Amino acid sequence: MSGQHHNHDHDHHHGNSPCSQMECYTNTEMIVREDILEKAKELAELISTSNEVQFFQQAEKQIASNDQIQVLISAIKKKQKEIVAFESFENKKMVEKIEKEIDELQDQLDNIPIVNEFRQSQEDINYLLQLIMTVIRDTVSEKITVETEN
């Protein structure tokens, strides 16, 4: 170790910097340990082999190749653009009419089983990810709490 490094176990201020006692890190300066990133990638790989993700990918393919679904999605997108146009003309009647048409198309879409299953699998994946984040956060918090109580 070179003589330039010294321990920060004493109080001192560097000029008028607001960071006293602790090193300051901005997000860009924070160096994430390679091993942590590596584990995160391993976890992501594991998650991508889960039933939830597998099902999601199959449903996505089925939706992409289903003409009936694609026609409905295109019609909804087209009508959403029409709404924007009529809103700019402040034509409330047409906006309401098109909104009703969109609701009807949306109902047709929602009544297709694979669409519902796809949405459900999206929710399952989000739930799984939130659960993982909660476990990580709680475990880290416990460790911090235990260490600061000593």
UniProtKB/TrEMBL annotation:
<feature type="coiled-coil region">
    <location>
        <begin position="88"/>
        <end position="115"/>
    </location>
</feature>
<dbReference type="Pfam" id="PF06133">
    <property type="entry name" value="Com_YlbF"/>
</dbReference>
<dbReference type="InterPro" id="IPR023378">
    <property type="entry name" value="YheA/YmcA-like_dom_sf"/>
</dbReference>
<keyword id="KW-0175">Coiled coil</keyword>
<dbReference type="InterPro" id="IPR010368">
    <property type="entry name" value="Com_YlbF"/>
</dbReference>
<protein>
    <recommendedName>
        <fullName>Cell fate regulator YmcA, YheA/YmcA/DUF963 family (Controls sporulation, competence, biofilm development)</fullName>
    </recommendedName>
</protein>
<dbReference type="InterPro" id="IPR052767">
    <property type="entry name" value="Bact_com_dev_regulator"/>
</dbReference>
